[in-house]
Amino acid sequence: MNDKPYANGAMIKMLVNVFEVSRNEYESEHEQTLLHYAAWAGNAEAAHALIELGAEVDAKTLDGHTPLLFAVQQRSVDTVRVLIEAGADVNAEDESNRSILDHLFLDNMVETTRRNDLRVIRLLLDGGADPTLGLTFALGEDHGLGVRATVRAGADVQAACADAGDQAGACALRQIDILRARREKKPTDNRG
């Protein structure tokens, strides 16, 4: 059951169809569309309804932030999935040339919201996000889940370490070597 009845799919469709609220018009103060608001609220149902009505999935704010970035920042797994399935650009960059994965690794969220990090990271990587670009920021922010997920997704470790800087890159290479060694030494499970 939707815990946000004020923003369910039927309400969104009524606003757009009956009251002629524009699905792509930017609200002036924050330069956000209705889809940005739905993504920020983590409301997958409202996001899906807006997309069905033709909302621009990759609309950008003045800072270059897309609805997908907002959903990722909220760690809203369902909304992230809806946006990616609708064709959102998982490698979109903002005005500071930061990707969506970069923002995920830069955001220091409280522990209770970080539990969705891995699910969101996997959705982005499965949706085509560049793991090497993500690894650079994951290394710089010491985001262990991000490092492991992007390396497993095929990130170019040498390139990411070079981008992270000499000291951070050398430290990261040691961490990755330790992870690989642990994985190789893991005893096989012989339980029958």
TrEMBL record:
SMART domains: ANK. The keyword Repeat applies. ANK repeats lie at residues 30-62, 63-95. The keyword Transit peptide does not apply. Keywords: ANK repeat, Repeat. SUPFAM superfamilies: Ankyrin repeat. This is Ankyrin repeat domain-containing protein. It comes from Cupriavidus malaysiensis.
